[in-house]
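Quick question, first post here. What does this chain look like in 3D?
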Amino acid sequence: MYRVSKSVSFCYGHRLINYSGKCQHLHGHNARAEITLEISSLDERGMVEDFSDLKQLVWDWLDQEIDHTLLLHRDDPVLPLLEGAGERVRAIDCNPTAENIARMIYDYVSGKGYPVTEVAVWETETSRASYRPS
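> Answer (accepted):
Ran it through. Tokens below.
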């Protein structure tokens, strides 16, 4: 098997509902995602995928959906206030944890037909969460 990984950095804000601790408050992260692709044979160029193409695909989506965006659970009581104030907010169906953000990125890349096997998100330099299907 051949495997390549590409990292992309982005910023986002969030808070967690039904959580006791610092992350129950609005805050932000300078995060990094690593997207891993895997195939059994290389393409005609001798590649799994061109790193530049993978970066562009992921960055275009991150820039539209997550970068410099406040991610909140759809049921978060501050959501209507922030939306009404014109803030860049994205409501999602789950708590915006690093694990769920990794899954969101995985679903996007996989949905575009890429042979993604795992997506990892570093919320901080020492905290990493990942998603890969079972």
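The two ends are 18 Å apart (CA to CA).
The chain has a mean pLDDT of 97.
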